[in-house]
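Input record (one chain):
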Amino acid sequence: MDFCDWLWRSNKKVNGPAMRRDVTVAKAKEIDEEVDRLNLMGETREAVINVRVNQGEFRNRLLQRYNRCCLCGVDNPELLVASHIKPWAKSEPEEKLDVDNGFLMCPNHDRLFDKGWISFDDDGNIKIANQLTRENQIFTNVSADMKICLTERNKKYLKYHRENIFLGNAK
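The corresponding structure, as predicted from the sequence alone:
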């Protein structure tokens, strides 16, 4: 079901005035005035950062394996994110670049997966956290019948994801 069908079937209304230019301009002026009151300054400062070495290689391997979002099929490489199943920060060095510790996803699905709103069982069936409302499932293109293809080695990392990240485990 597309957005318009959902909107009609759920008897929802779009707030037209909130979408008009004059309302948007007024809101922008309000924000500008608040920034002026706060006396915020755009400045630059030097920072030391950590760089994920070989992250580009990890992404290239995922692009070769999947060449599209594992979940929805978006195939524009510029829109695809190399997503770790077991987070980089929690992974051992050999797990960080293991292609089986990753999925290639569009930004919506990457964010949902990374934050634990979705996960997958060992058959690749999607698991959706109860906290993700039906409306947000529609807006983010998530449905209970979605499935991804897994390798045997993906399952080890997915077990970690389900037990430590997936919000469906929240008490």
